[in-house]
Amino acid sequence: MKRNSRLSLALHTLSHMAGDPDHVRTSVDIADHAGTNPVVVRRVLGRLREAGLLISEKGHAGGWRLARSPNLITLADVYLALDESLVATEKDEHSPTCSVEHALHRRVSSVMKEIEQSLIERLSETTISEVRGE
């Protein structure tokens, strides 16, 4: 599952948090466990906080904890919170002058959007609790 390291980090961290949802974890602890930098952790978890999946608490006893029950957080929630795509898509900045290339680009873009939507639908079928086997 290392294709997208931010998604892997987010899912891994949330799955651990699901084991003890009220426990507050620091960015440093999460980074040590995940083998990455605390700055990377804060960036990823900040996105999850903005999406309402995590709460961050400041201060000496501060850190990160789940904002809602792990059985209410789907893999799609996490995927969408990170605002990136696992499906390779082209930006619409390129305007082909060739009619064949234009038609091909339009059709392939449409298929890729369908694939992305299907991926999100499948991810919405699994919760963080289910990943933990609960």
What can you see in these coordinates?
Helix 2 packs across helix 3 and helix 4 (75-81) packs across helix 5. The protein has 6 helices and 2 strands, in the order αααββααα. Strands 1-2 form a two-stranded antiparallel ribbon. The two termini are 20 Å apart. It has one domain: Winged helix-like DNA-binding domain superfamily/Winged helix DNA-binding domain (Arc Repressor Mutant, subunit A, Orthogonal Bundle). The protein is elongated, with a radius of gyration of 18 Å. It is mostly helical and 134 residues long. Strand 1 and strand 2 (63-66) form a beta hairpin.
First and last CA, distance: 20 Å
- Global shape: elongated
CATH architecture: Orthogonal Bundle
Give the C-level CATH assignment. Answer: Mainly Alpha
Share of residues in helices: 40-55%
Mean pLDDT: 89
Question: What oligomeric state do these chains adopt?
Answer: single chain
Total beta-strand segments: 2
| Contiguous helical run count | 6
Count of domain modules = 1
Features:
single chain; 134 residues; mainly alpha; Arc Repressor Mutant, subunit A; two-stranded antiparallel ribbon; 2 strands; elongated
Question: What is the strand and helix layout of this fold?
Answer:
Layout: H1 5-19, H2 27-34, H3 38-50, E1 54-57, E2 63-66, H4 75-81, H5 99-123, H6 128-131
Structure at a glance:
This protein has 134 residues and is mainly α. It has helices spanning 5-19, 27-34, 38-50, 75-81, 99-123, 128-131, and strands at residues 54-57, 63-66.
